[in-house]
Amino acid sequence: MYVTHITYYCLCGHNDAKQYERSKREREGLLLQLKVMTHAVPLQRWRELGVEEQRAYIMRLLDALEVTDRDKRLKVARAILYLAQGVFDECDTEMDTLHCSRHNIFLLYEMGVFTALLELLSMEIENNQACSSAVRKPAISLADSTELRVLLSIMYLMVEAIRVEMEDDKPEWKSSRETFKTELASPLCNGEPFALLLFTMVTKFCSMNAPHFPMKKVLLLLWKTVLFTLGGFEELQQMKVAARERISLPPLPEDSIKVVRSMRAASPPASAMELIEQQQQKAKLPLVKQDSLDTYNERDPFKNDDSRDEEEDADDADNGLEGEVDPLDRDVIIQPPPPPAPLRPPTERVCFPKGLPWAPKVREKDIEHFLETSRNKFIGFTLGNDIETLVGLPRPIHESVKTLKQHKYVSIAEVQIKKEEELQQCPLTLVCHTTGRCFGHSGSLCSSDSIALLKLLLAAAPTSKAKTDSINILADVLPEEMPVTVLQSMKLGIDVNRHKEIIVKAISALLLLLLKHFKLNHIYQFEYVSQHLVFANCIPLILKFFNQNIMSYISSKNSICVLDFPHCVVHEMPELTAESLEAGDSNQFCWRNLFSCINLLRILNKLTKWKHSRTMMLVVFKSAPILKRALKVKQAMMQLYVLKLLKIQTKYLGRQWRKSNMKTMSAIYQKVRHRLNDDWAYGNDIDARPWDFQAEECALRESIEKFNARRYDKNQNSEFVPVDNCLQSVLGQRVDLPEDFHYSYEMWLEREVFSQPIQWEGLLQAQ
């Protein structure tokens, strides 16, 4: 279902859940009171009303939203939130509540509720009195953001419910979905899209001008808005295929989403203690046959069928959990892997899958380098960028070039870079098309907003320590009165940890989504955002995030199942005890944290791919042992991106590191895509020269500035402006003069015109 992963206190928090722990009579009283206030029929239940009667009631609620009394507006907003949550007092089951919520949300949108809420949200953002009052307060609590939290909760429910398409949707709902998608992407408030309004809230909060803004709700709504308007990973894959067809590139060799879904997790790296135990076990079985040893290894619960991926790492001892974790949620593009096969009899051998998961790729640059080296060796001269002429080269070189061309891959980015180079060389003869459906406002978006997102990520990271000058992200989770009992303290502690985890999840997903869309739209848009992130220390920040007991973080249980929505409002609330809170749920791991870790690893991969200077940052910050600890998580997708990060820096880690980590090298070979002619395992890459690192970033920045100047700079260089040769046109142009020019106009005429002799004969002769 569309909100199965949306828990109730994701929207309102554990402390707000107190109002839903009241009796059903009290909760019904709120809606009946509002029906009387809006002159609706108070004796009928909502689900007993017809559609037209429900529309009339919503219209009265919209009229009541325009009153000047702040308290009355808040009551009406709470009634709309109750409708968006499914009128749960009239529902008997959780599924019934979700269906009713979906029906009500589409009805609310058709009646224009979202537009009305957007106006109220803009008023709250521009409420300088509330902002100044919050700045002066020594401690900010939930009470300071009540109106904002109610508005953002309704808008989040509407965006998420309408965004997800279901099989039983009505035809008018599908039409409403497309209309809402277009509406969110178009200028709604102050000539800007809705996402940029939310970005404004983020930057305003991080600049300490509005510390009472509920950042968790803002970030969740911002993420879902971008996901809805631009599209998720499935839509991105389809857009990439269509983009390659438009520029006449061959189709992709495989669907990366399907490949990742079919991959299996490898065994985690062995710690020093495990290696000692394994040596002791082998010492006890010196004469056992190999078949028996295979069976013994299969009984180890921390190993899977592919024992070749196990890494011997005696230098890195970690006492973290090493139980197997399998994805049980569908919040990410991967599917749950099949359950592990039962133990085989001792006589059956282990069968590994044939072939590698990825088709190898070769860049045109790699073919040029190969031919340049071959020509220097066999002929003694080179032909530049010519990859067709093979005269004078031996037959094996011909076969090698043929194989390389069979696996040649030209990316959309390479085509775009080549076109930009042509535009730079011939600015007058080539047409420059404006690009940027999501980049038009990037001048302000990418600099300040990316830094603000990283500040929030740093504040929410579990490895960060509280500082006096850091931003307070707990303003929308701390109650007015601090807990006085052990149970209340435990409940608040769980809520605080969960609050931080949700912020990390939203930021990581948002950054990854924006980076992927920017890269597909234009490579220099992606590089522009990437440079801002790198200069804002995004790489060491992500490494700092992973420099913890990652298994403990992924297996944390900061949730209370009985408070999940809609369970908490449909079923009777059991008594919470310290023992039940400490036990947590029955899930083996926290999908939310696993999702965040995968997103951060993918962001790190995108920032460092084909960038030697940034790869050296991974080496300088000693990321190898940090990433190796992350391999303990037995999840295929997470291991894939960890191995990618290890692969790009192996050439810099030295021969001794590669020698002592041969099983990690084997796992890289087995799971990561191969680039033919890539000497990643030997360190012979000619591009890995330390004196080129600074020049690489400077050249990239220069290309980005030229790209932005051609497309987004309003003050274009007048050097290429056509000359106007028409006398009437030139004299008719408006010239901006100083304000005080008319005071000295006569003096100017006397000095510059009348007192200057004009030699007309000389002027005519010059012509």
Automatic annotation (TrEMBL):
<dbReference type="GO" id="GO:0007010">
    <property type="term" value="P:cytoskeleton organization"/>
</dbReference>
<dbReference type="InterPro" id="IPR021819">
    <property type="entry name" value="Far11/STRP_C"/>
</dbReference>
<feature type="compositionally biased region" description="Basic and acidic residues">
    <location>
        <begin position="296"/>
        <end position="306"/>
    </location>
</feature>
<feature type="domain" description="Far11/STRP N-terminal">
    <location>
        <begin position="15"/>
        <end position="347"/>
    </location>
</feature>
<feature type="domain" description="Far11/STRP C-terminal">
    <location>
        <begin position="394"/>
        <end position="745"/>
    </location>
</feature>
<feature type="compositionally biased region" description="Acidic residues">
    <location>
        <begin position="307"/>
        <end position="326"/>
    </location>
</feature>
<feature type="compositionally biased region" description="Pro residues">
    <location>
        <begin position="335"/>
        <end position="345"/>
    </location>
</feature>
<dbReference type="Pfam" id="PF11882">
    <property type="entry name" value="DUF3402"/>
</dbReference>
<dbReference type="Pfam" id="PF07923">
    <property type="entry name" value="N1221"/>
</dbReference>
<dbReference type="InterPro" id="IPR012486">
    <property type="entry name" value="Far11/STRP_N"/>
</dbReference>
<protein>
    <recommendedName>
        <fullName>Striatin interacting protein 2</fullName>
    </recommendedName>
</protein>
<dbReference type="InterPro" id="IPR040185">
    <property type="entry name" value="Far11/STRP"/>
</dbReference>
<comment type="similarity">
    <text>Belongs to the STRIP family.</text>
</comment>
<dbReference type="GO" id="GO:0005829">
    <property type="term" value="C:cytosol"/>
</dbReference>
<feature type="region of interest" description="Disordered">
    <location>
        <begin position="270"/>
        <end position="346"/>
    </location>
</feature>
